[in-house]
Every structure is written in structure tokens, then in C-alpha cells.
Amino acid sequence: MSLLLEFATAADRRRVMRVRPPADMAHFVHYSWFWLDRSLRDPAVRFRLVRLLPRRSLVGVVAYGPFEPIDQDASSRIVHIGEIYHLVVDRAWARRGIGRSIVRRALVSLRAELPAVSAVRVSHHPANAASARLFATLGFKPIGEKVDHETGTRDVLCELDLRTPRYPPRSPP
Hints:
Layout: E1 3-7, H1 13-18, H2 32-41, E2 46-52, E3 57-67, E4 78-89, H3 98-113, E5 119-124, H4 129-137, E6 141-147, E7 154-161
Parallel strand pairs: 4-5
Antiparallel strand pairs: 1-2, 2-3, 3-4, 5-7, 6-7
């Protein structure tokens, strides 16, 4: 599966709002427009449209950047650890392995854009079994909790060590 992570701009807002998770996942994810807006204010937050090649169909969105131990607090960032902040596969494309491909592609991009990164973290709601399975199959290990700024939920915090030979090169294919 060949994916393109495409830089998103303010002009993409309507496209971003049309990317909706499956109904059973909607209560686990923040609004994608929130992450688009945050990336427009803060260049350290990378928000990307995810397109499936060769037709360039919009299949999802992803946001990543430096790890923020304190949710939405840029002053808490740790530059040698990356974070996937947000991942949504559109409901029309869900359950086809696209989420896994997006994470893999995001890891490659993160390493290329932030070369000092030696690990990547992601957090998910404790009841989100699909996310827990996805990240576990990609080698992420639970390491603790991260409190969601908006809801106060203690999300499961997972980490992937990029220094292992199994993980992606520093430059995109």
C-alpha cells in the first residue's frame, strides 16, 4: 500500500472535516480540525493529509511532532522523543490495514524531519482496544499514562524505541 503524507494548509479545512472515523471509534478521537489549527499556529506540530496512491484518495489524517509530556503544553516538549498526536482513518477506508501503514509512514517522516528522535510515543484511551492492538503489533510498549488535557482521561502511553534495527530508515522511500 503506497501512501503520501501531504502537508495540510488552512485551505484544506473542509477536506479535513470530511475525514470521519468509524462510528464505534468516534468517541476516542479529537476533532481533526483541532490538530490542523494547532499545526498552523505551531510549526513543530506536523499535520498531514494521508492520500492513497496512485489516485490520491484522501483516506485519513495524522499529526506528529516532538513529545509533550504535559498534553498541549509546548514548553514541556522533549526533542529527542517524537509523538504521534492524532491518527484518523476515514470510515470508508477503515479496517483495511491503512492505519498500520499510516503509522509506519509517519515513523519514517518523523525520523527524517526530526533526526534527533530516538523513540516515538503515542497515547490512546484505555478502552480503545483497536488502537492498543495496532500499536502493540507495531512494537509499541506501554510505559505509563498521559492525562488528556481536555477530558482528564488517563490515556495509555506507549513507546517505540527507534534504535532497534527493525524500525524505519531516516529518509522516506
